[in-house]
Amino acid sequence: MEKQEGRDPAAARIDDPWYDALASGWGELDGEPASATVPAQQRADGGERLSPAEIYLEVHRSAAFQEVRRRYRRFVVPATAAFFAWYLAYVITAVSAPGLMSRPVAGAVNVAMVAGLAQFLSTFLLTWAYARHARLRRDRAALELRWVVFEQNQQNQNGRTAPPGPGVNGSRPARGDQHARRPEPGRGARRNDGQGTTRGAHR
Amino acid sequence: MIVGGDHQTLALLLFSAFVAATLAITTWVSRNRHGSAEEFYTGGRLFSPLENGFAIAGDYMSAASFLGISGLIALFGYDGMLYSVGFLVAWLVVLFLVAELVRNCGKFTLADVVAARMSERPVRIAAGTSSVTVSVLYLVAQMVGAGSLVALLLGGTSDAARNWTVIGVGALMVVYVSLGGMRATTWIQIVKAVLLMAGTITLTVLVLLRFHGNIDALLDSAADHSGHGREFLAPGLKYGGDWTARFDFISLGLALVLGTAGLPHILSRFYTVPTARAARRSVVWSIGLIGGFYLMTIVLGFGAAALVGSAEVKASNPAGNTAVALLAYDLGGGAGSTGGTVLFAVVAAVAFATILAVVAGITLASSASVAHDLYASLRRRHAKQRSEVAVARVASVGIGAVAIGLGLLARDLNVAFLVGLAFAVAASANLPVLLYSLFWGNFTTRGAVWSVYGGLVPALFLVLVSPVVSGSPESLFPGVDFQFFPLQNPGLVSIPLGFLAGWLGTVTSREVPDEVGYAEAEVRALTGAGAV
Predict the structure, then answer these.
(1) Is B519 in Cβ contact with A56 (below 8 Å)?
(2) ipTM
(3) A155 — contact with chain B (CB < 8 Å)?
(4) In A148, B166, B268, B463, which residue has its Cα 20 to 30 A from B280's Cα atom?
């Protein structure tokens, strides 16, 4: 995995609240991490500046992002359809076929009990499967893309002469520099109170 | 109801200890705080997934679950269990489709996510209105629950005791929220979740010990003492009658599973952690806690049927709300014993803590909607600018007053019905607009506005013309009859209507879909780029 220049990964990770530990250890190799190289990166390195909207558009078109999105949808769409159908089938059977549901299985336990507990079990299993899938197949690539957007914005900001730079929407504003963070037009709060947050000041 | 001086005194003592502890937390966490919006609404976004997981569980597991579901199981057996399943499965919708994306796209409220690539003002007003409506319905349910709970558990059935309980709960929640903001609310919810889990685990272990760990014996005994025999263990006792009752249950099931992801106080919890990954991990924690909790309520419900008996539960409270308290009394050693007194008082105190924590969470979320969405959009252009947090604090006082007033008026309404209604409105008005704006590139402003009102208005209207309000002896106004919608829960009709209205509004609007905006929204949602 290549690193973007101008960033010391070790330093960035200490006391950085945006960073939380990536997956490590077992199972790491079962997902080929998507490369986070985005055309915008090279172009901007060559001196050309992109507006924030263009950066997002470039990232959106990149193969890395398309891969993250494909992986997310490939898991979530079938899994949602499956658990929703299974839950609806359970509710409808419970109210329309009580005879089937009351058939004994073992001792006092009947089909209805087994089906209800199976709902609990399937919920726990799907939760585990989703968390594992996201951790191993998406998180790393998503974080890389987040860096790409952030560093593009940083470059734009540093390259401009008139401070504070317009369109500052980097994902990682420097701490203590909250005033520079402005909501883009039409997004987020109507007005920024101008009060710094206490992020990092406590605990 | 068992009325004795000892457990009342002890329960009151535990209540007071909890109230004192929560007020101490509020004072402690709000020291040295600047009143920034970030701080007030999200607690600085620095809670850990574990903390937030407990807080979500504390926000979600209401007294209606703790007392209501076990009571329903004690009375109707298996049909009560259907509730626990719906309340848990709903979390898969939250985990898969909502938690991470909302964390990445939004700032403080639901409207932040929706308004990102729309014309801001109408969308904010719509989403803010529906969020406040859902919150107030849910809040009234909890206030009514608090009043009847304290009256039931402490034997003080006088009207004055009930009214003062409602007023006291309302005043406390306003204090927590307006002074402590999200940070105090979160810690109160964590403390409550720990207390609730500890209480539930203790009772469950005692029930299982009584039956020597033999589930079969527990179920057999429950069936024997229920007066229904084997039918008690299968569906049909409550929802098995005519087809209206069955459709009513399907409607409720749909509302439960789709409503959770549209509850404003649940959505606002995802903003209290630093990243989407942390939001996901907090949902995983909360699914573990909530799933474990609902499994235990099933044991408690059947345990109450087996050890106390359905007839006795019903004699104490027709809705079954006292089943767990009676069970605790029995498990501790029965009438007059110290163990019974202590366990009973603990159950009462835990239920009270539960209500306080839940109402604080809802009040905070709805005051955020009022200040951040409604006030910010409706404020006159030249009016004096006020700090949003100051508005939110005032809003929490106003919402507290409204909730106290409605709680006093609606005190004879069924709590479970009010909760089901809040879920139905959330599923009809909030979920469609949220899913469309996250997953549909062509979604437009008109679609967003139509989808909110197209779910909200039918849901409220159908309740108005349902047997709940008029036309039957149990309804709110038994004297008049303008009922023509047969179901008590509107979800089966209003949820599809919300989705349909959003689609219709989008395809009929001439607004050109903002493709660049959607590309940006997708990148933000899935990678966390530009997230606050």
Answers:
(1) yes
(2) 0.91
(3) no
(4) A148
pLDDT in tens, B364-404: 999 999 988 898 888 766 555 568 888 888 899 999 999 88
3-state secondary structure of A171: coil
Looking at residue A160, the DSSP 8-state letter turns out to be: -
Alpha helices in B369-414 (DSSP H): 376-378, 388-409
Q: What is the pLDDT of residues A85-133, one digit of tens each?
A: 999 999 999 888 888 888 888 888 889 999 999 999 999 999 999 999 9
The CATH-assigned architecture of domain B5-527 is: Up-down Bundle (1.20)
Distance CA B345, CA B517 (A): 56
User: Do the chains contact at A193 and B92, CB–CB below 8 Å?
Assistant: no
Residue B487: closest CA among B505, B469, B506, B513: B469
> What letters, b where the CB count within 10 A reaches 16 and e where it falls short, cover A41-75?
beebeeeeebebebbbbbbbebebbebbbebbeeb
User: Rounded CA gap, B436 and B498, in Å?
Assistant: 11
CA distance A57 to chain B (A): 6
d(CA B518, CA B525): 10
CA distance B338 to chain A (A): 34
Q: Which of A109, A193, A203 would you mutate first to test chain B, the one with the most B CBs within 10 A?
A: A193
The whole-angstrom separation of Cα B428 and Cα B435 is: 12
Q: Which among A20, A59, A149 has CB closest to B275? A: A20
Q: How far apart are the first and last CA of chain B?
A: 52
- In Å, how far is A89's CA from the nearest CA of chain B? 10
Q: How far is CA B151 from CA B18, B148, B401, in A?
A: 18, 5, 21
CA A39 to chain centre: 21
| Whether the Cβ atoms of residue B70 and residue B416 lie closer than 8 Å to each other | no
Q: Is A198 on the interface with B (CB under 8 A)?
A: yes
